[in-house]
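Example 3.2
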Amino acid sequence: MARFFKYHAVADLEAENARLGIDLRFSDDLSPLNRPLVVGTRTIGNRWCVHPMEGCDGELDGRPGELTFRRFRRFGDGGAKLIWGEACAVTEESRATPRQIWLNDATRPDFARMVEECRAAHRAANGDDADLLIGLQLTHSGRYSRRPIVATRDPLLAGRNEFADEAPLISDDELQRLIACYVKGASLAVAAGFDFVDIKQCHRYLLNELLGARNRPGRYGGSFENRTRLPREIIQAVRAALPSRTLIGVRLNAFDGVPFDAAGNPVSNRTAANGWGISIDNPLEFDLSEPLAWIDEMRKLGVQLLNVSLGNPYAQPHIGRPFETPPPDGYESPEHPLLGVHRHFLLTELIQRSQPDLAVVGTGYSYLQEFLPQAAAANVRDNRVSVVGVGRAALAQPDWVRQLREHGTLDRKRVCRTFSYCTALMRSKNHPMGQYPAGCPPFDKEAYGDIWKELQDLRKK
């Protein structure tokens, strides 16, 4: 039974909103979501974005697997005009799992096929694809790489991964050499047909960890100037290498927070040696002074798309993904999930209002379930966000935009209930290829029903 989500109408959510003292807004007029948005020389045909939903289903050599192709076709078919492609490693050693996709000279034709199949599916279901933008998220997994590559020591994360605790810090020279890897990945992405690349800076992967690396020595740690140095150098190099028509995006943590323990308690509420977007005096609270300064600088460097995220899925998943049911190895939510949704909306609004002309993509909508569209419409109407990103709910119902266009409501039988099946699959490693593919077993049984059953049978042994 639902612990929190017992709402049958928008009025129920509005009453809960008042009780909690937060600022969630809803509108039955969904027309703001159909307005196009001009970004640079490109046009996004509506205000919907598919978030970078990694499927952990690539081949061992980095090629997209059949489930990867299927996911991109389903996203193309679905009707969203901004498809923010999933995490793609910039080097083999920076892959988070053995099945994370990796774009290189050998795999580029497969990525080009993936883009074309996505576009073909979009044209078949939605007509013109001239206003469809497809991107690719370039990532280095850092401390969460298969063999951890650590940018700084973090006492609050110590003990969670003995391999990361024991790994030597990546050197300044090694970090500088990564710039060429990002440029190579971005250039190959353009050759494969992607419209934009994302220089990923979230979820405590390498570039995000550097942003908060106050205790790192050398030219890439300590001061704000040093902590932003590597992403700055990467963005400059990528911008110089790409055609002017190709957009640069960034998925950025606005707030890292602190880890939570197995009981759902923060490991510290006083000080933190590292962290981005946190209050130094109370790391449970956000402080956007550095993120806002960095966003302003990135705009001057040529970044035109910003996707706002929060937290660390390995250390405090409720911050980034407010949930009804925790994953099998997780904790119960220590706060009402609507407080988490409100945090996402508030921080995104503060960023959007500081940069009213920047295309800002918001996060945190899936928990609202069938009332997601009404919240999305109100936030776009009130200029709290430019584009609404949908993550877990896109796995459950990838055609949600067409559903709204054709029926005015979501298909209630396929609405994501945030039961964390997708997360449970992503965290399961006892697969012959080293990683189970991640998807939505309840509402995509065709692809993931047998996979989920196999995993459950293994757990019973």
